């Protein structure tokens, strides 16, 4: 090397010139790495990482050399087995030739320079992503943490679904040409929580995704890029370009969509909760609209009877007390039963019977097995009142029949009168409208109100709800 220097230049200790040159190149390489930092506070960190990249490159080159040597030995053995001894001898002669050994020695001496070249190339590739070099040096490149406040069940369901979606070949792949684009998904339980493993064929790195509780009581979705087992461990630590590619992939294909989906699920739950409270408020309002209607009509009946007959008035008052005792609790209850609603209707009809005399008759058809089945409060009595007021008010021989039955998994409570039929449709106003609104709010499309009328054949109204378990 000294012969290449300009005339008059001298290098002391020529025997160390190669070592000094290698040391100078090493310092240039470390300086190249340090320039990606933020001054002195990161210089040491980046210098150590640059040396680590050299060591990793050396391990990879040694693996390659061992692989070439093993393949060469296998070829020599195969030549011997196949009887091609002449070619075998030529290869052996070339291997053990003095020139070949010199070339091998020179290659070994060039290893430090080659490792620096590989390390510099990796640093340059990382530098295309802002902050990636420093993140690789401090270890933050290989992991991502997403803080979520979602329900644990929702998080597990959405996370599993999205990870399974990554294995779909129609989805975007990893984008590294040496590996398969779509991973295999492995799931195992770890401390009572699932851990997901994404493995790409031929890639030395794999992704581990798990859920951990944080100090604030919330949950963290932790994604880490780690070395796979077996011979991949010879890479010593995370290969930076593979880790960068996996982290970019997991950011765009998992963590960002997961955050958006969990926010959507949370918004839907809040909307459902608000809707539920609105429905409950609506039910209270609709139910409250019925209470004074019942009470005022009944008190008017008592006053009317006391004017005409004290004995009938006392009888009416007894039924009114029984009616109010049942009605006051029932009208404010969230739920009731078939027998309670029929009992309330019976007291009301008894009061009306005293007032109307022989003009009113009523009967009940109620199977014993349906007595304790749940039924919404204050609906049946509204149908009975509608039948009295609009169905048989002008009839000389009016009859009301209340019946309960089951058909097609639905509980049906029916109120029928023999009044004017179609002319009574004018009575399907506020009372029946409230019933329809309450049924829709409580059961959606699973419950409804059926009405029917024929000229001169009376009017029927049937409340149909899903058959629920008995309240025994």
Structural commentary:
The protein has 472 residues and is α+β, with helices and mostly antiparallel strands. The protein has helices at 17-34, 40-82, 85-95, 98-127, 132-138, 152-166, 240-308, 310-331, 338-356, 380-391, 430-443; strands at residues 143-148, 184-190, 193-199, 205-213, 219-227, 336-337, 360-365, 374-375, 398-407, 410-417, 448-453, 459-466. The strands form three sheets. Strands 1-5-4-3-2 form a five-stranded antiparallel sheet, covered by helices on one side. Strands 7-9-10-12-11 form a five-stranded mixed sheet. Strands 6-8 form a two-stranded antiparallel ribbon. Helix 2 (40-82) packs across helix 4, helix 8 packs antiparallel against helix 9 (338-356) and helix 9 runs parallel beside helix 10 (380-391). The longest helix has 69 residues, at 240-308.
Query: What pattern of helices and strands is seen along the backbone?
Result: HHHHHEHEEEEHHEHEEHEEHEE
Task: Briefly note the structural class of the backbone.
Answer: alpha+beta
Which strand order spans the largest sheet, edge to edge or round the barrel? 1-5-4-3-2
Gap from first CA to last CA = 103 Å
**How many distinct beta strands?**
12
Brief account:
The chain has helices at residues 17-34, 40-82, 85-95, 98-127, 132-138, 152-166, 240-308, 310-331, 338-356, 380-391, 430-443, and strands at 143-148, 184-190, 193-199, 205-213, 219-227, 336-337, 360-365, 374-375, 398-407, 410-417, 448-453, 459-466. By secondary structure, the protein is an alpha+beta fold.
